[in-house]
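Q: Got a minute? One more chain.
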Amino acid sequence: MKRSPMRRKPFRRKPPKDDAEWQEAREAVLLRDSHLCQAWAQGNSLGVRCWGRLHVHHILPRSRGGGHASTNLVTLCAAHHDFIHGHPVDAREHGLLL
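A: Always. Here it is, folded:
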């Protein structure tokens, strides 16, 4: 079956690094955010319902020099994480992507 060229490819996450620094940062951010999606906690102004596992998202992507500092990480559900990567302009307006 041939895909339509207008259809957006699904977001493919890279597996997180298995290093101790990442695991420690991830756990600290989940605790800081009380294991709640922070897009939902802001009043769900993105218009997307929360669902799926919790992810820890880099606000400034690692590919652009963002590290694992807690100020650069935020807890998101799978739905909001996919939305943010598919709609970067809206994400920037809400401070969830730089």
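A: The beta strands are 54-58, 73-77.
Q: Perfect, thanks.
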